[in-house]
Amino acid sequence: MFKKIPLHSQIFLGLILGLVVGLTFIFTNVPQWITLELIKPIGEIFVRALKMVAAPLVIASLICGIANLSDISKLSRMGTKTIGIYILTTTFAITIGLVTVNLLQPGKLISPKTRSDIEAKYSQDVKAKKEQAEEVKEQLVLQPLIEMVPENFVKAASENSRMLQVVFFAVLFGVALLKIPENKRSPVVAFFDGLNHVVLKIIDFIMIISPYGVFSLICTLLVEVAGDDPNKVWGILKSLGFYALTVIIGLLIMVLVVYPMLLRVFTRKNFSYKAFFKGIERALLLAFSSSSSAAALPITIECVEKEFGVSEEVSSFVLPLGATMNMDGTSLYQAVAAVFISHALGYDLSLGQQLTIVFTALLASIGSAAVPGAGLIMLLIILESIGVPSAGLALVLGPDRILDMCRTAVNVTGDATVSMIIATTEGEKLKILEDKKETVEVE
For residue 372, is pLDDT > 60? Predict the structure, then answer.
């Protein structure tokens, strides 16, 4: 009976059950070890399995995608358009975040007592993140460009946080393939094409446990947030609710206004946004539960190809690149969080300081790893760049895990949107953008 339920519905049921079981455990005082030792490992296995295939998928799909272009000029054209649109959407996201937080000003609602409670609770976490941020700050101005080139490709491929290095190598490898004779190129392309299909089949196997993985991740998240004193934690989260709402409002504007607008502008076609969400539903649920666009990448590629009709040539180039440099949700969150912390600590930011946030967040989005928590390290750098004490990071650590889930889902939505735009501008006919007689539906 359960097998007859569509996979995306199974994943959603897993998410709901995770919420119900997690809350039940919290308010019935079930010992934490039951969750941490019996339930949490399932989620960790699931996420590890997805990350396991991320590097081979990026390598195989990018190399095949570039090699199949058979034209360097087409690669250059696609690359320029893709990076340009990613920078555009990230700039939109940061601007929306700043406008929203300046209008609602949630930071001015934090009471001094709540502020001191939060700082005391998360002081150790702030210290750890500050040490990581100091390492980044000491780097050269062009260090991100240097870091893009791997010293050891095998080492880069073994760490998901170095995915940009993997992308660099794969692109270089693909371009080199285009420059060698056909009889030498064909067997290499055939190998990576076969590898790509093998990885996709492995993903099918992994997805069998996805409902259980999502259940475990959500249940564990709730129990870990509550800790030994759920009432105190919920009180802190309630006081920060308006801040979280501000971030979510900004994210909703990106999803419900900016992305549909860009699709209409670039494709000039009617489309059903409900169908768009249904098409990437599985990818969104995985991004939401894992807080990692890298972990969701295999499913995102599968969704845009099967549900929207984006060619493998486009998806295998645009989406891996997006998972490493297109962090719209993260950039918006960083803008909101920086102003929120500033207001909460009694700092009023000038126009120049807010422009600094735009520039720094834009650069940070390119260098952020596609893994949970990476945005916090970049947030510390933003705070330092505008002269706000980095200890203020403690103010946003409470609800950060939940907001991380939301902004990762927005990152994936942005990646899927850009892949459709690039595919359309390359002359592809997409299922969701076909001309229809009915009125466009944007929800």
Answer: no
